[in-house]
Amino acid sequence: MRILVVGAGIGGLTLAGFLKESSIEYDLIEKSSTIKSQGYSLCIWNNGRRILEKLGIAEAFDKAGCPVNYYCVRDGNGNLLRKYNLSNFYSEYGMAHTNISRTVLHTMLIDLVGEEKILFGINIKQIIQRSNKVKVTFSSGEEREYDLVVGSDGIHSEVRSKVFGQGIEKFDDWRVWYAWVDNSFKDRNTITEYIEPNEFVGMFDLKDKTLAILSAPVKHSIWDDVEHRKNRLKVAFKGQVRIGGFIDMLEDRDFIPSDFSHIKMKNIVKGNVVLVGDAAHGFEPHAGLGASMAMEDGYVLAGELMKVGDIYSLKVALRAYQDKRKKRVRIARNLTNRMRGWAFVKSRILRKIINAWMPFFPVSFLLNKYHRLLREEI
Ligand SMILES: Cc1cc2nc3c(=O)[nH]c(=O)nc-3n(C[C@H](O)[C@H](O)[C@H](O)COP(=O)(O)OP(=O)(O)OC[C@H]3O[C@@H](n4cnc5c(N)ncnc54)[C@H](O)[C@@H]3O)c2cc1C
């Protein structure tokens, strides 16, 4: 079997990492011309770590990451609304929830696969399916034929739009700006969220570094010019007392914008083309599950592909992959929506009501679904 994997991100590299141990031949293409990782940090729950364990890189991951012991929700003045202690997760699962630089995790996966296995600076121009083969034309004009094409090319996937259709990605009209800020703005081993109407700020501890994530409603179609970005952020986040402190310490270009969007598809297989990770089911990062889900996809798809033979067809394998992923992706999506529900609120009245209720939300409202994801078989 000959496979084309489009996109050397978290999901594509995980798939390639497992295929290394098989006789399946693959080409792995990446549109960036060099190793370029988005510079934010990723919260990885133990389901993602379990995949890294299977790949033999969990120890290196533990060393590089920062355990998250607490999750705090505060208002813009810093008043504590709710503090979740995650120690039960640690006693039950060992390593439970780790914050790691995306660049570091990405590099670990590249090292595992081998940089020389990645064909950088290549994009796809056309994908045509005929009689169980997929003919791909690359940006260079070269054509190749494959038994399977895997779209692991992220939330704005070109494989998805070329094969499954346009307009599947839905923008939420909330923009995020992330920036590395001074360590004095964080609480140790904690994710802290500061929430006000139309304003969300998250602080993530990464041992010697701190990532700030700022989010506010902005129409996706409105371009975010780098010039005067700081001043615009100060106005947009005027309800946040702490943020003024770090905004002034940074430059306009230190804040990197990205627009939230999501992908919801019934079928992630079409003929001999299959989607993995954000390309298949991208959701906003509120529950910190996108990267772990992409790694799970890579693991499950590799397992199915390795079973293909005389009595187990590729068609059956792809159907099994799609069916196996449905339930877990649904749980992760529900969790994401639940957490977005209290984080991204525009109305002042609704914000007041949620804030007043927040100390009384049963712990199970949030944590039981995580337990389900972590306990159940992947
Ligand atoms: C600010 C922010 C914070 C986040 N925080 C978290 C978090 O805390 N925890 C978490 O789990 N998730 C988080 N996420 C989401 C997480 O980054 C994604 O869910 C995860 O990276 C998905 O992996 P993927 O492999 O599907 O896609 P990606 O990792 O995005 O990889 C896609 C790859 O495909 C390449 N590519 C794109 N198009 C093409 C093409 N046409 N041809 C070839 N290559 C192509 C890209 O260059 C990229 O290398 C966050 C996202 C953002 C924006």
From TrEMBL:
InterPro entries reported for this sequence: FAD-bd, FAD/NAD-bd_sf, FAD_aromatic-hydroxylase
Domain FAD-binding as annotated: residue spans: 3-330
MF terms in GO: FAD binding
Lineage: superkingdom: Bacteria
Name of this protein: FAD-binding domain-containing protein
SUPFAM superfamilies: FAD/NAD(P)-binding domain
